[in-house]
């Protein structure tokens, strides 16, 4: 098996040299274990938190031990009665080509008419996060004016489409021109944050949503939050999903200077972690999976080839290198 480890807990944006590719022969399969040949690996922004050496809501990666992450693969040997050779499964033994792990936490994919890697993106954890934050945290209603940051990413691109489908007016913030064009094709008012101050971004949001913002789906923090705060309507709701702007910060970032708008406009701002809502995953799949299969929900993937490219795929998340879900393909 070939797998990645990290050799240290980094400060700031990790260097490529932090990630080491190791090779080890696999031991015999123990009772209750399965061996899986991975087809697809997920890299996600939350993994940066696992590289901090501190326990947040997930334990840190252990130094010099195989890293973990969501993956889709095929069972090639099984010592568990629930799983058999040939099953296509999702599991957390990512960052490696062949995973040998306990069958607990290995789940056969629901068979549907979508490509298997959709279960790492639009129908997996990022999709579930989008649905949870929009519906259960922000309590988005038809007619709301919705603002989404990192709107062309894995989570954001589903948030904007679920909100559009509810009959909301939706503004999406993103970086590159091709991302803004995709958002526009989805009926979203695109707004670039590049080379803008918080004030300039706020003005651009106002132009795109003259009636203010009722729901802000927060993926970024930084100037996006500051700009959004100035455009909120009374009684607005903010679902704090992520703050990727600060994940590599080497010192505490200055707070938004206009945080008092939360008070003045009687806003509710609430953080959430998707794993606490996983009992609703079935409900999410029932609603969203037919729409993905029918092509009514549009999703994009940015795919890097080969296990060696996994760290680069991860690091590009912080430079906007992905549109939609960032994936690594091991299919060659
Ligand atoms: P994305 O697919 O959105 O990838 C990250 C994107 O963020 C990049 O493509 C880039 O797009 C944007 N970005 C990166 N750095 C910055 C920056 N400094 N300022 C502005 N934009 C930036 O990732 P995910 O969809 O997987 O995750 C989105 C957010 O949701 C993250 O914050 C993540 O941590 C959070 N999350 C939270 C969960 C929870 O349970 N609360 C679960 C899953 C995800 P661009 O080119 O537009 O800049």
Unreliable runs: none
What is the CATH superfamily label of the largest domain?
Answer: NAD(P)-binding Rossmann-like Domain
Distance from N terminus to C terminus (CA atoms, Å) equals: 16 Å
Q: What percent of residues adopt helix (DSSP H or I)?
A: 10-25%
Q: CATH topology of the largest domain, which one? A: Rossmann fold
Structure classification: alpha/beta
Number of domain modules:
2
The global form is: globular
Give a summary of the structure in a few sentences.
This is NADP-dependent oxidoreductase. The protein has 332 residues and is of the alpha/beta class. The chain has helices spanning 47-50, 125-137, 154-165, 177-185, 198-208, 222-229, 261-264, 281-293, 310-316; strands spanning 2-6, 19-23, 33-42, 71-78, 88-91, 98-102, 107-108, 145-148, 169-174, 189-192, 213-218, 232-240, 268-271, 301-305, 325-329.
Give short descriptive properties of this protein:
332 residues, alpha/beta, Quinone Oxidoreductase, Chain A, domain 1, Rossmann fold, 2 domains, seven-stranded mixed beta sheet, six-stranded parallel beta sheet, binds NADPH dihydro-nicotinamide-adenine-dinucleotide phosphate
What does this structure look like?
- The structure is a single chain.
- The protein is an alpha/beta fold and 332 residues long.
- It has 2 domains: 2-120 and 300-329, Medium-chain alcohol dehydrogenases, catalytic domain (Quinone Oxidoreductase, Chain A, domain 1, Alpha-Beta Complex); 125-275, 3-Layer(aba) Sandwich (Rossmann fold).
- Helices cover 24% and strands 25% of the residues.
- The strands form 3 sheets. Strands 3, 4, 5, 6, 7, 14 and 15 form a 7-stranded mixed β-sheet that branches. Strands 10-9-8-11-12-13 form a 6-stranded parallel β-sheet, with helices on both faces.
- Helix 5 packs across helix 6 (222-229).
- NADPH dihydro-nicotinamide-adenine-dinucleotide phosphate (NDP) binds next to helix 2 and helix 3.
- NADPH dihydro-nicotinamide-adenine-dinucleotide phosphate is lined by residues 44-46, 126, 129, 150, 152-156, 174-176, 179, 193, 219-220, 222, 241-242, 244-245, 272-274, 317-318, 320, 322, 326.
């Amino acid at each position: 098996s070939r797998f990645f480890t990290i050799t240290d807990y980094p400060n700031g944006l990790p260097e490529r040299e932090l990630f080491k590719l190791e090779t080890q022969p696999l031991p015999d399969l123990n009772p209750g274990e399965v061996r899986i040949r991975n087809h697809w690996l997920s890299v996600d922004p939350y993994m940066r938190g696992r590289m901090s050496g501190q326990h947040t809501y997930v334990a840190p990666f252990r130094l010099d031990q195989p890293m973990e992450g969501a993956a889709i693969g095929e069972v090639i040997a099984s010592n568990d009665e629930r799983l058999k050779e040939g099953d296509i499964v999702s599991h957390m033994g990512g960052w490696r080509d062949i995973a040998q792990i306990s069958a607990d936490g290995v789940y056969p994919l629901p068979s549907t008419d979508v490509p298997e890697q959709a279960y790492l993106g639009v129908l997996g954890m990022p999709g579930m996060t989008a649905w949870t934050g929009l519906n259960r945290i922000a309590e988005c209603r038809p007619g709301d004016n919705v603002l989404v940051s990192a709107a062309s990413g894995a989570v954001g691109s589903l948030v904007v489409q679920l909100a559009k489908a509810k009959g909301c007016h939706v503004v999406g913030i993103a970086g590159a021109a091709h991302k803004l064009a995709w958002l526009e094709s989805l009926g979203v008012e695109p707004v670039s944050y590049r080379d803008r101050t918080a004030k300039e971004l706020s003005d651009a949001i106002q132009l795109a949503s003259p009636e203010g913002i009722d729901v802000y789906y927060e993926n970024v923090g930084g100037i996006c939050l500051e700009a959004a705060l100035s455009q909120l309507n009374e009684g607005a709701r903010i679902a704090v999903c992520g703050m990727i702007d600060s994940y590599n910060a080497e010192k505490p970032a200055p707070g938004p200077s206009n945080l008092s708008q939360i008070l003045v406009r009687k806003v509710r701002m609430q953080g959430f972690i998707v794993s606490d809502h996983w009992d609703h995953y079935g409900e999410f799949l029932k609603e969203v999976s037919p729409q993905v299969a029918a092509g009514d929900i549009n999703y994009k993937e940015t795919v890097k080839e080969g296990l060696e490219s996994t760290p680069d795929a991860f690091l590009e998340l912080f430079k906007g290198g992905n549109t939609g879900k960032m994936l690594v393909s091991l299919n060659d």
